[in-house]
């Protein structure tokens, strides 16, 4: 098994524990307020999905890895509820797995599709990025790492799913969910009150 490196991004506390930062997870991030990098990835059924085809709709990008305890925490029901609530309101939700195929956490497309089905997940599509190019273009560092792209194709949120960086399911209800807050503001035609936050989770196992 490869060693899983949890990354808790918490400002001073993260700086106090630099060993948690894997050097391959540090990339130049796409900038909030700028057009989101376009991409085409295959979903778990092998169909190409292109970000720009959804222009005119808000899009959530969710970096995921079922081997990560932070991902499993939020797939206890939290992420499924968000996916169902907002895809029902016209939001496109793309779950992206950038885990390299040499990692112990890697799931083949059928395995990943089966895991999502078992969890009753409801993203618009689950995409494979095992080369890591899309994750690196967005500067995705951890799972889960969340982004919101507005209907004009501009990146308006990048960061953590919520305000409590733990793997405890009990903390979900206590936390401020930044993705829900941001989507509600976006759908109401309001600027996002918190366009960025520090993500937390397991470092992405990028190729190379």
UniProtKB/TrEMBL annotation:
InterPro entries hit by this protein: AhpC/TSA, PRX-like1, Thioredoxin-like_sf, Thioredoxin_domain
- SUPFAM superfamilies from the entry? Thioredoxin-like
PROSITE patterns from the UniProt entry: THIOREDOXIN_2
Thioredoxin domain: from which residue to which, for each copy? 30-188
Signal sequence, start to end: 1-28
What are the alphabetically sorted keywords of the record? Signal
Recorded superkingdom: Bacteria
Checking PANTHER family in the record gives:
OS07G0260300 PROTEIN, THIOREDOXIN-DEPENDENT PEROXIREDOXIN
What is the name of this protein?
Thioredoxin family protein
Q: Which organism is it from?
A: Hydrogenophaga electricum
């Amino acid at each position: 098994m490869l060693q899983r490196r949890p990354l808790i991004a918490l400002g001073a506390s993260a700086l106090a524990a630099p060993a948690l930062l894997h050097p391959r997870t540090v990339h130049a991030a796409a900038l909030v307020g700028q057009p989101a990098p376009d991409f085409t990835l295959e979903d778990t059924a092998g169909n190409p999905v292109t970000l720009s085809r959804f222009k005119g709709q808000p899009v959530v990008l969710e970096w995921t890895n079922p081997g990560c305890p932070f991902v499993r925490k939020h797939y206890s029901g939290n992420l499924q509820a968000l996916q169902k609530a907002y895809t029902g309101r016209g939001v496109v939700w793309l779950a992206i797995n950038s885990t390299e195929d040499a990692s112990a956490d890697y799931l083949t497309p059928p395995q990943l599709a089966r895991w999502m089905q078992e969890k009753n997940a409801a993203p618009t599509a689950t995409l494979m990025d095992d080369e890591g190019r899309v994750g690196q273009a967005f500067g995705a560092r951890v799972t889960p790492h969340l982004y919101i792209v507005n209907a004009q194709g501009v990146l308006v949120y990048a960061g953590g799913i919520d305000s409590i960086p733990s793997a405890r399911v009990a903390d979900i209800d206590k936390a401020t969910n930044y993705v829900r807050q941001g989507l509600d503001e976006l759908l109401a035609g309001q600027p996002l009150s918190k366009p960025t936050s520090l993500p937390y989770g397991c470092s992405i196992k990028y190729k190379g």
